Amino acid sequence: MLDVALRHSLGAFTLDAQFRAPPGVTVLFGRSGSGKTTIVNAVAGLLMPDQGRIVSGDRVLLDTAAGVRLKPHRRRLGYIFQEGRLFPHLTVRQNLGYGAWFAPKGAARADLAQVVDLLGLGALLDRRPGALSGGEKQRVAIGRALLSAPQLILADEPLAALDEARKAEILPYFERLRDAAGVPILYVSHSASEVARLATTVVALEAGRVIAQGPAAEVLSNPAVLPTGARDAGAVLSARVIAHHDDGLSELSAGGIPLFLPRVAANPGASLRIRIAAHDVILSHTRPEGLSALNILPGLIHEIRPGGGPGAIVAIDTAAGRILSRVTRRSATAMGLAVGQDVHAVVKAVAVAATDIGAG
Ligand SMILES: Nc1ncnc2c1ncn2[C@@H]1O[C@H](COP(=O)(O)OP(=O)(O)OP(=O)(O)O)[C@@H](O)[C@H]1O
Q1: Do 175 and 289 reside in the same domain of the chain?
Q2: Ligand 1 touching residue 273 (CB < 6 A)
Q3: What number is the ipTM of this complex?
Q4: Which long-range contacts (CB under 8 A, 24 or more apart) does 285-289 make?
Q5: Which residue range is the domain that position 16 belongs to?
Q6: Is 193 a pocket residue for ligand 1 (Cβ < 6 Å)?
């Protein structure tokens, strides 16, 4: 568990933020300039806030009132930066060894063989960073952070420098890290689909303040707190893989509702989390028939939130969880949509991209 309370002024900007990061990935999510990096720097000990208290597990890293200010190297943190920052003259094995060198003596630390296996680094150990792809470098950086026996991992936009294909390559490794390493991860991101896949907890920031914090599915289903507003709104559902069919579709079950998606890379029985973007969901009063879309989720309208422009976000509670649909206000009026009404949310199978599906 990480507890953070900070107050700090930087010119015209004031950070006044409090949040708690339970085990798993806690994503700091907010627009550019909302204070994400300032928070990460304060946790890292690279910025001394005007006032603050930061507690990681049972260790007080900072308590300005009590005069406690642990030096950065004594905070037991692993860093994963945007651009990897590996030593170019060292091999992958030596770069990993550098992480272990930083681990305090006697600290329980990850085993090299386990880390190599977790991150798929076996074939890369004797190469230098110049001979690695961006995604491979990032996997080495994750391994190096893990081997330093951290009590907390800080990842500041670790995927921002990678193209979509490399991001898709790395995301599963962060999922494994989240699910296997048992170390809390504080993760900075702008990307709604990255957040939907990785976050256990989301801390939404605006102008230096926390405007929402809580489980990812809950915070992300509130379009009012998303940095890009309705454009990025979407729901996160938990689903279990039931079967793979011969026509290339996989059948899943989300709270008992069948979902058909393009074949997913997970075995029957596996739990997945799936992001369904609000703009891919259409609404119907009656259960549609003669429609090509395969996924129909009956539910009740929980909220209708008009946007600044012509659109509105409709939140629907279904047995699979809360779904969001982005419709025009004109359609909402023409359909007579109202809170408490029964509706059917309709999702095309192909609307759900592979990057929006992650381990649950
Ligand atoms: N040394 C400084 N002096 C004055 N203002 C600063 C200073 N450093 C940062 N700021 C301001 O503090 C605010 C928060 O910056 P911060 O880097 O934490 O934002 P961020 O959410 O990480 O943004 P990004 O996503 O663009 O990295 C910004 O408005 C920035 O301009």
Answers
A1: no
A2: no
A3: 0.91
A4: 285/335, 285/341, 285/342, 285/343, 285/344, 286/344, 287/344, 288/344, 288/346
A5: 2-220
A6: no
